[in-house]
Amino acid sequence: MTVGPRLTVGVPVRNGANFIRPAIDSLLAQTYRDFAILVSDNASTDGTVAIVEEYMGRHPNIRMQRHPANIGAHRNYNSLVTGSTGELFKWMAHDDVIAPTFLAACVARLDADPGASLAFANSGQIDEEGRITGDLASTESYVDPSPYRRLRSYVADRTKIPQVFGVMRRSVLEATPLLGSYPKSDTVLMYEMAMRGRFALVDEPLFLNRDHASRQGRLGLRERTAWYHPDRASPLLPRWNQLRGFAAATLRVPMGSGDKVRCVAFALWWGVRHGIELGGEIGFGVRQSLLRWRGGGTRPAV
């Protein structure tokens, strides 16, 4: 028997005082009520903690865990999964907003399809002021019974809808290694989730993704590497980490032998397709090693 709310919404944040109020307000406005909010503050130095504490004083379903030092985005995100309970889980970025029916619609889709690992909605784009600037609608089908075909659908989906912010079954999510310590590790996680179960689409723009100057997606590779793992001074083979993650997920997920062979072949095809980038990373790694060997250290970011 499940104890406590059925769904936990985890909000990872570091210095998010600029946008966290609209994010929390959109959660409090949900028509679905069987959920709790867990905020994980990653050593913020702005007013984030005070804002969350203000909400906690008025809403008993909100609680916060705090990290005294910057542990990196991947550990902060993952700590929300390990530090919460409930049959269902959703990550909520501090700068995004969801429509009042988002949770209800996603939970309904999961209830209607026991084989679905995740439910997500089409997306609207908003700017810093919350004005809608565009829509993104998925044209791919994630409901095929074949893990290989679902995987192909995920990779073919060019809409850039962040399925990682959908509502997920905790049992499926916890069967994965969660997020890795490198850029684009969310794609590896979704790659595995697609092989483990169907993705149920809510065909309405209920997820509002905010574009602003300081968002993670606008950072350069060095800055994004530090965002994931603050102890790393330079990028550490991000494409190779993706390829390794894809291959490991393919070998880890239980499936029929035919799908297994095709998924392994697909991971190899991905490696060939990104061969130039993979080769460039090897060259970069060799140059960095030579610099360290000669006593020059890593090259400073430009």
Describe this protein's structure.
With 302 residues, this protein is an alpha/beta fold. The protein has two domains: 7-218, Spore Coat Polysaccharide Biosynthesis Protein SpsA, Chain A (Alpha-Beta Complex), CATH 3.90.550.10; 236-293, no CATH class. Helices cover 42% and strands 20% of the residues. The protein is built from eleven helices and nine strands. Strands 1, 2, 3, 4, 5, 6, 7, 8 and 9 form a nine-stranded mixed sheet that branches. The longest helix is centred in the last third of the chain and has 19 residues, at 275-293. The N and C termini lie far apart (54 Å). The model is unreliable at 298-302 (pLDDT under 50).
SSE order and pairing:
Blueprint: E1 7-13, H1 20-28, E2 35-42, H2 48-58, E3 62-67, H3 73-82, E4 88-91, E5 97-98, H4 102-112, E6 116-126, E7 132-136, H5 147-156, E8 167-169, H6 170-173, H7 185-196, E9 198-210, H8 221-228, H9 238-252, H10 257-273, H11 275-293
Parallel strand pairs: 1-2, 1-4, 2-3, 6-9
Antiparallel strand pairs: 4-8, 5-9, 6-7, 6-8
Helix pairs in contact: 5-7, 5-10, 7-9, 9-10
